Amino acid sequence: MSSEAQVPAPVSAVVDAINAGDTDAFVAAFTLDGQVDDWGRVLTGSDGVRSWAESDAIGMDARMNVLGAETVGDTTTVAFEWSSRKFNGTSTAIVTVADGRVSSFRIPPAH
To answer: Is the pTM here over 0.90, yes or no?
Structure first.
């Protein structure tokens, strides 16, 4: 993670888990009903979050480098570079936190 980007601890836990290749830590960073929304493909709950981690992130040797972040209330918008065996490039994630964990990790479609 970029030393310049300041993100809340739950968001940092997601980034750190991806970069460490730790699926269990990634799932643990989410609320029990947490969700990943990747370009409209929504996966919910621990099984859904784990599935996305395996098919699109950790299972694809992903690395996430935070370029910048802005937090307003419980929502952090993160600009990041992503490299993996599935996708490489820059993107944005909108991450919502509830009760000290991530409740929603949304990657909207590129414009």
So the answer is: yes
